[in-house]
Design goal:
The complex is a heterodimer of chains A (104) and B (150). With 104 residues, chain A is α+β, with helices and mostly antiparallel strands. Chain A has two helices and five strands; from the N terminus they run E-E-E-H-E-E-H. In chain A, strand 2 and strand 3 form a beta hairpin. The termini of chain A are far apart. Chain B is mainly β. Helices cover 0% and strands 51% of the residues of chain B. In chain B, strands 1, 3, 5, 9, 10 and 12 form a six-stranded antiparallel beta sheet that branches. In chain B, strands 2, 4, 6, 7, 8 and 11 form a six-stranded antiparallel beta sheet that branches. Classes of the chains: A alpha+beta (104), B mainly beta (150). Chains A and B meet through strand 1 and helix 2 of A and strand 9 and strand 10 of B.
């Protein structure tokens, strides 16, 4: 379930709640999208180019994604760390698990 | 962690992007922008403007650099704030727009984030967030206030 991350007020009155994109950290209005169903990132890009607002959900981050541009799973905390360490923004460390001993 | 505000103002343009205010961090802190208020102080009219809160990598040359106001108790801000007519616009990172909105000239617009959901700015030299108009139907005067913590 989407969690509210903030809000928008117009003339002091609450106008909308906002969600935070799991991959860029940006905020976007919390509202149902017109296009329903499942889309691949490529299909979402095509729909987006036709002027349809496409949002997404990252099952790894368990959070909303603002659009096809943020389809690749690189959490915004990771991006922030990459920028501060001088790494490419899309850098993802490879995590592997190695057993302590392997019996022959 | 203390909270700060920076107030910027600018006369917008119908043909070019104009920065209303820009916050620039430093290498020692990770500022977190949690609120933005925008409003026009020009003669009321049925006009609107699209604003971006966009990431920057260089502060540019602002017309003035008001001291960030400390909200409550704490130390002076490490970040700086730029306002007024920029002779050199900040260097914006293409496509890095964490918040965007369209505001009617008669309205006052406010965006805010819950704690932990703010817009984080990396602790690198020149990194910051600029509040700029990207499209406006009238060249009118606007104020923008940016709140952040560091």
């Amino acid at each position: 379930m989407m969690k509210e991350a903030g809000g928008i007020e117009i003339d002091g009155k609450a106008a909308a709640a906002t969600c935070q994109c799991s991959h860029c950290g940006g905020h976007f209005p919390f509202k149902p999208i017109k296009a329903g169903g499942l889309f691949t990132p490529e299909a979402a890009r095509v729909m987006n180019s036709r002027g349809v607002t496409m949002r997404g959900w990252c099952s790894r981050c368990n959070g909303p994604v603002c659009g096809p541009r943020c389809a690749e799973c690189i959490p915004w905390q990771r991006k922030l760390e990459n920028v501060m360490k001088g790494l490419p923004q899309d850098f993802k460390p490879i995590l592997v698990s190695v057993p302590r001993s392997v019996d022959g | 962690m203390s909270c700060y505000s920076g107030i910027g103002s600018a006369t917008l343009s119908t043909s070019a992007a104009v920065t209303v205010g820009g916050m620039t961090g430093s290498t020692s802190v990770v500022p977190r922008v949690y609120e933005v208020i925008v409003g026009s102080y020009d003669t009321p009219a049925d006009q609107c403007t699209q604003f971006y809160l966009q990431r920057t990598t260089a502060a540019g040359t602002p017309g003035s650099s008001p001291t960030p106001q400390l909200l409550g108790l704490g130390r002076a801000a490490t970040s700086t704030f730029g306002s007024g007519t920029y002779s050199v616009e900040p260097t914006y990172t293409s496509g890095e727009v964490p918040v965007q909105f369209v505001c009617h000239q008669r309205n006052t617009f406010k965006w805010w984030a819950f704690e932990g959901r703010e817009i984080f700015v990396p602790a690198t030299s020149g990194a910051g967030l600029g509040l700029k108009s990207v499209d406006s139907t009238q060249a009118d005067d606007w104020h923008g206030t940016v709140f952040w913590m560091e």
